[in-house]
Amino acid sequence: MTPAQLAEKPGARELAQVATRTRDAIVPDALMDATLRGSDRSAWTVAQLATADEALARIMEAIQGAQGIIDGFLARTRPLPLPKVPSVVTVWARAITRYQLHGDRSASETDDPIVRDYKDALKFLQLTADGKFSLGLDDPVLTDPQLLDVRFKDDERVFDRAQMRHFR
């Protein structure tokens, strides 16, 4: 998960609102978007840039927290880091990061999509750790030949070819 991916969804406006400290003026949407994407920020004042950088630091902290949660679940069954991050993992990371940035939410998951998405992400991570849900085509468990080694064991033969010749 990268800040640029968060700029796409949930977007710079929401991130600016939840990541800016309460004592500061909310970072302008365009500045937050430029900060998340690593674009040119020369049009803003030094104070605005400092506030945006502090907001970005909070966002990065939430991203790292989400990655830690995801790694904790996936490490039980998959080699980390994942060679290619499946899109479903990005969706889960986004939901967890967003939940962490919004702080303690008291609404239930039926009333609040942020809480619902967070709980769904944790549920699917648990199912994945338990081997009941696949990460899709990019799942290392499906693509790593060492993890896909399937062997069949059969009982020893009761009759071999030499013994079977006597029954013809």
Describe the protein's architecture and organization:
With 168 residues, the chain is mostly helical. 57% of the residues lie in helices and 0% in strands. The mean pLDDT is 86.
The main pleated sheet reads as: none
Mean pLDDT: 86
What is the number of E strands? 0
Give the ordered list of helices and strands: HHHHHHH
Q: What are the segments in which pLDDT stays under 50 over at least 5 consecutive residues?
A: none
Q: Beta fraction of the residues?
A: under 5%
Helix content: 55-70%
Per DSSP, the total helix count is: 7
The Cα radius of gyration reads 25 Å
- Kindly name the structural category: mainly alpha
> Which overall shape is indicated by the principal axes computed on the Cα atoms?
elongated
Task: Give the distance, in angstroms, between the N- and C-terminal Cα atoms.
Answer: 69 Å
What are the main properties of this structure?
mainly alpha, 0% strand, 168 residues
